[in-house]
Amino acid sequence: MDVPVALDPLASQPVPPLAVQRPVTQTAPVIFASPHSGRHYAPDFLAAARLDPLALRRSEDSFVDELFAAAPGCGAPLLAATFPRAYCDANREPWELDPGMFADPLPPWVNTTSARVGAGLGTIARVVASGESIYRTKLPFAEAERRVQRYWQPFHDTLSALIEGTRATFGGCLLVDCHSMPSQTQGRTGRAVDFVLGDAHGTACTPRAIRFVERALTDLGYVVRRNDPYAGGFITRHYGRPRERVHALQIEIARELYMDEARIERLDRFAAVQRDITQLVEMLVREAPALIAG
After folding, report:
1. Torsion angle (degrees, nearest 10) of CA 176, 180, 185, 191
2. Which domains does the chain have, with CATH numbers?
3. Which residues contact 164 (CB under 8 A, 6 or more apart)?
4. How distant, in Å, are the alpha carbons of 4, 32, 105 from that of 1?
5. Do residues 40 and 83 lie in contact, with contact meaning Cβ atoms separated by under 8 Å?
6. What is the pLDDT of residues 219-268, one digit of tens each?
């Protein structure tokens, strides 16, 4: 498939909209996906935005793809979007759009009423995570069509193919949807929550998988919560079909564990968190066949 490209303003070479790191041989029914860690900002997007690049980057799940970078070496593919979430959100339905953002009327089949649209965080976001408006002027609907076709669709075509290939080879699949979260969520003890695991309240994956990940992270010393406030977005809910032997689990990592959220920079303890994530990846790859059996 020919893959369209966007230009990275920090590099002279074109950048594909997604990156797939495949193991030499896939040895387990596990796929890792990072739909929000893309950081290649097209010049036309920067020109249309009223915000500076640092403000735009605050919508990213910065460096999450790097935290899970060990996956291919452990025998599992890692799919990452390279386009930024503020430009096109791969963790939304393809057509969740705010009509107030567009200069022309939207077709009747567009979803204009979802909670994500109401928050300004549809497929084409109106605001960044901090709530600031992104654009100087309204967009033509044709621009939304272009982004969905050139960025959203290739990401999901690739993810669907990975899932179907994994299920065909191993009889089932566990999709780990990897994200980060602002570091403001407090647990019952008052200590900040380090990880939130989302399985759409038990509908997107086997209970064995979420219990296993919860126990593994707790044993590593982290505070873990389930489904609150993040139960899983479009990817988890759309692809998680346990009756069809496809299980999806969303993992949200508190950004303060590994990065300076204001400067979008890795902290010194990034390497330690990455080692813990690598250990989790190794355990999942080893145990996944048993976790999704039956």
Report:
1. 80
2. 6-84+147-291 (3.40.630.40)
3. none
4. 10, 21, 32
5. yes
6. 999 999 999 999 999 999 999 999 999 999 999 999 999 999 999 999 99
